[in-house]
């Protein structure tokens, strides 16, 4: 999931054909930049001319000004003879949209040499703003000039970077974003969520959210503010149910309208459950908020400082293996938390930390264990009333003090083993359990062999009966 759309197509006429590969992406670190790379391949033995048009650039009617041609003197532009266009148009209400881009071909006709591949790049910058004083023509004209200037600046910057650098910047940004993530064991139980649905939904959400930390146009103060929001999770998903229980929340439709509605629902849900700081932080914060929501993870603060993280989940719900990767605790500290159902059907926690000064303890608040990059194992304990099954903090003293704060009516005990019928439903789709494939192969062979010998025995008896009857008739005659 690297933010790329790739289309393959075969164009064929009566005598000619070409193959076309189109790579399209909205740049992750350059706001509003749409990059289109098209590879034309002519497999025939003769040259072919094709007509190429880009309607949004060549025929888009603007309300406030005619389409202008940008003079391009950039050495980074491999096809400087093509036309550059820029124009503005008011959309619904008070939204002004400005577009700048370059055509594939200066004449609209491209010649493809025989047995050759022709590569073309197209850069298009989209910029929009809400005009507060649409009735004031002087203000409107100034806004249009400012927006066009922004588009021209963005185009020149992209041209200077070059197509290879643009691609690497984009894919690297997505790779860095996916350093944090979630994985869960596959389930065949009805209405269960699996990794493909969860991560595809998460991909759609992140595609709708900009990243201040990755944005090349962000100022130092904006980056600093985003980091402040990222390190102050506040009450994000404090005392809330984990969203793995709500499969409908993860059903993003296939149409654009359905996707937008699903993303809005998720972001509204995060806002409702106290994750506003994470949302303000941008894509990195939204990713962290979604990860917290999946596992019932939350942070506790005191005097505007995070003092510990809790893993709030009912032990009875831990009937699948799942893993959280790089949960951000502080500026440069990340936690990995895994839930593993062992051979005895008991859930076990595996925790590691990128820093060596963090401690963890289980629900029984036993002696805190020093965490490191090496995985530490914690048992899942059952408390009455239910409390968090894991606490993590950078202060051993704080975890020790929780014994006086968290009250248990009964002594915490090891959580019961998971119901084997529930585990069977996840593994096999039903509660009857499963048998190895070799068992069914042997059973099928036995059944076939039995029927073969049965058929042979019946056939032999029939043959003997017919033969005896024939000889008896000959003897009587």
TrEMBL record:
<dbReference type="GO" id="GO:0016020">
    <property type="term" value="C:membrane"/>
</dbReference>
<keyword id="KW-0472">Membrane</keyword>
<protein>
    <submittedName>
        <fullName>Uncharacterized protein</fullName>
    </submittedName>
</protein>
<keyword id="KW-0812">Transmembrane</keyword>
<dbReference type="Pfam" id="PF10222">
    <property type="entry name" value="DUF2152"/>
</dbReference>
<dbReference type="InterPro" id="IPR018795">
    <property type="entry name" value="K2013-like"/>
</dbReference>
<keyword id="KW-0325">Glycoprotein</keyword>
<keyword id="KW-0732">Signal</keyword>
<feature type="signal peptide">
    <location>
        <begin position="1"/>
        <end position="17"/>
    </location>
</feature>
<keyword id="KW-1133">Transmembrane helix</keyword>
<feature type="transmembrane region" description="Helical">
    <location>
        <begin position="437"/>
        <end position="455"/>
    </location>
</feature>
